[in-house]
# Entry
Amino acid sequence: QVQLVESGGGLVQPGGSLRLSCAASGFIFRNYDMSWVRQTPGKGLEWVSSINFGSNRKDYADSVKGRFTISRDNANKTLYLQMNGLRPEDTALYYCARGGRMSLDTRTRGQGTQVTVSS
# Structure
């Protein structure tokens, strides 16, 4: 079955950086678009970024554009999210999920990795 395991979260000061990873198994990773989403207490899931299977299309939410970079390594079945210029409002539980923005299947997301931006 589809398994996604996120890692790399932590506590960081405003302006800092983190790199999230998502290890995939149980499906042919290179055939699927992939996405990152995030959730904060009291809010629903917010789409953050998507990358197509060939890495030649990347989309970002306006709130993270210019600060976050999505990438993938199909050989190692891993999805990444490089987050720079972190802000307190980026604090959330971050998940990866299978699918692009329009085909996202949030049921596939893993346990998530917590990102906390605070001084």
Remarks:
- The CA atoms of residues 33 and 95 lie 15 Å apart.
